[in-house]
From TrEMBL:
Gene3D superfamilies: 2.80.10.50, Glycosyl hydrolase domain, family 43
Protein name: AbfB domain-containing protein
Residue intervals of the Alpha-L-arabinofuranosidase B arabinose-binding domain: 359-488
Pfam entry (one): AbfB
Amino acid sequence: MTHAPARRRAAVWLTALLAALSLVAGWTVATAERAAALDPFTGYLMAHFTGESSNNGEQIYLAHSDNGLTWTDLNDSGIVLRSDIGTGGVRDPALVRSPDGDRYWIIATDLCIGCGTSWSTAINNGSRNLVVWESTDLVNWSDPWLLNVAGAIPDGRNAWAPEAIWNPATGDYVLYWATNVPQNGATKHRIYYARTSDFRSITTPRPYITPPGSDEIIDTQIIEVPNIVGGYRYYRANVTARHITVDASNSILGSWTNLGNLSHLNISNGAISGSTVVEGPMWMQFNGRDEWAMWLDQFATGRGYMPITSTNLGNVENFQRASGYSLGANRKRHGSILNLTQAEENRVLGRWGSTASSRVQSYNFQDRYWRHADYQARIDANVSPAQDAQWRIVPGLAGTGTVSFRSVNFPGHYLRHENYELVLEEDDGSAQFRADASFRAVDGLASPEWTSYQSYNFPDRYIRHYAYRLRIDTIGDATARADATFRVVD
């Protein structure tokens, strides 16, 4: 599969020759389950995709909020994680936290309409897999893997809109998703579930929600309510029979009671003429209080998510439309929201939050600064446009003790070395990219008042300029030490 980096490579090859990279779905919110094991929540993290105009839209994006209503795109609105397996794209990401808060997963639909897959193929002969990432800190993620969830369902034709929730009754996760299945005279999407402890293997899938007749269900999401507000421990939002319905239960795998729908707000999935047509209910509890928001995607008008709020989930009449919200620059499609502790929030914002821009000045050519030109990195004077020489110096993609250089005007692109040359390339989410794009800042090799940058995965090499081009080299003489010494200028 060709990703955005191919564009940069094409430019490099050309330069070298001339010189000699809506699904109607559901969302999981890893809510405050077992919250007593965690520090107080202080912020919110949303994972989402943006659309299917290209395969870049069907990847993982993140946004942050302090209050649960006003959202800011992270990573300069760029891709945070990219899937290069399965179909080459992902939709409907679900954020899952372990009960003790020491492990996280993102599970997502393996589907890429922007790559050329038709909706007919996706419905009738789509991927039976989910795409999964794992992390211990929310910022360093594993390479993705495929989890086959629908292959064991007789004539199961796809796997969409995954969700997962910790089940204290069984000590593992209930993983649930939609699969299109011909059964009992009706071919339609039904919700199946399986149990898992690691999102690498699952129990045999079983039917979970099967609407009557020809009615189907794709979107559903469960939230746990620790204080049993409204009389139930769990609440489930669904898109069924063209309504947004709410169910309640005290057991995830037990019986559920239907509490009604949102018709009193003139909100539906098309059942009410002239109503606000929505899909993709996404739960969120406001930090520090018994109040919840259900975010609904106004897909029919392309206006994005809107929140409705409630202080009593046991009574659907208690829901009301909210105002004074903002979703940021990116269009946010089919995602999930995770309440963040202060430590989690610090890590996430430290990696992907906005950072002041800087220039990097050469020690021995002090009128020259690092810049990108045709995706090559070099030092130049009088850079135009000026943003080509501006960088956000962020915590290193490879981890503690390193830094990475993110482009200001090419969001999601970083300096990395490739064949020892420094190039500008979009983060593909791989461990190789993280290593190639990370450097250790050390005392300047030519002057301790300045700085040199040691390669993370080639520690005998440092960033230096040679014929004005930036590369990583071993340093053996005074000229090389001067070439490898720089200063950060605001």
